[in-house]
Specification:
Elements lengths: L2 E7 L12 H8 L3 E7 L12 E2 L9 E2 L1 H15 L4 E11 L2 H8 L3 E6 L4 E2 L1 H6 L3 E4 L9 H12 L32 E2 L2 E2 L9 H19 L1 H19 L1
Parallel strand pairs: 1-2, 1-6, 4-7, 5-6, 5-8
Antiparallel strand pairs: 3-4, 9-10
Helix pairs in contact: 3-5, 6-7
This protein binds adenine.
Adenine binds next to strand 5.
Length: 242
């Protein structure tokens, strides 16, 4: 099963952009996922091809028109069929995390609506039952880069995209912890040595050291994640006992 991503944007030239490079770009060329980009402006019916207008109630900026967005979504659906997820990238959405990335990577198709200006008329978001996703608590100039972030995170989880399938198992967030530090050759660099345990050849010691490092990093850098990890850990200890 391949993932189809339908992008709706007024800047179609921004795509594939970074998604055309690296392993994700190779996977696109190899057909492991599909991307279709629609220019919202081509659905504007008036002679100025305007996709936005001033906000009712006043205020700064412009709002994207519901009629134009709606026609664009319908056009995409007429060719693709209904999308498993219809997502509007917006700073007020559910914040993207690895759990949501996994959920999205498992779905066959998604429509990603990239807004510009102050936002999109609420009525089309409601009528189309769009979900809103944010990539973090900061404001971008539009949803395009957010859509690319979301897609890169999802596509790298698709079967066959990453060379070494095992690499995603141990990375940050899989265990609920940040990842332990990595080292490679040279064994001594600028007078700095690699931790002794990593060259000991003792796999059990290496595993234990990495676990301790991951826990310590998470505790100091991300107390929020650490607390959640501890809670889950206690739960699983309780489950094993009962
Ligand atoms: N559009 C503007 N800012 C955004 C954000 N933080 N996440 C998703 N879409 C956005």
């Amino acid at each position: 099963m391949t993932l189809t991503a339908q992008i709706l944007t007024i800047f179609p030239d921004m795509f594939p952009g970074p998604l055309g490079g690296s392993l994700v770009g190779k996977a696109l060329k190899d057909g492991l996922w599909r991307m279709e980009v629609l220019d919202i402006r081509s659905f504007a019916s008036n002679k100025h091809a305007s996709v936005d207008d001033t906000p009712y109630g006043g205020g700064a900026g412009m709002v994207m028109r519901p009629d134009v967005i709606d026609v664009a979504i319908r056009d995409a659906e007429s060719r693709n069929g209904p999308f498993a997820r219809k997502i509007y990238l917006s700073p007020r959405g559910r914040v993207l995390d690895q759990a949501l990335v996994k959920e999205l990577a498992a779905c066959p198709s998604m429509l990603l609506l990239c807004g510009r200006y102050e936002g999109v008329d609420q009525r089309v978001l409601d009528a189309q039952q769009m979900e809103e996703v944010s990539i973090g608590d900061f404001v971008l100039g539009g949803g395009e880069l957010a859509a690319m972030v979301l897609l890169e995170a999802c596509v790298r989880l698709l079967p066959g995209v990453m060379g070494n399938a095992a690499t995603t198992d141990e990375e940050s967030f899989e265990s609920g912890l940040l990842e332990y530090p990595h080292y490679t050759r040279p064994a001594v660099w600028n007078g700095l040595e690699v931790p002794e345990v990593l060259v000991s050849g003792n796999h059990a010691r290496v595993k234990n050291w990495r676990q301790v490092q991951a826990e310590e990093l998470t505790r100091t850098r991300r107390p929020d994640l650490y607390e959640a990890y501890q809670l889950r850990h206690k739960e699983s200890v309780k489950e094993k006992k009962s």
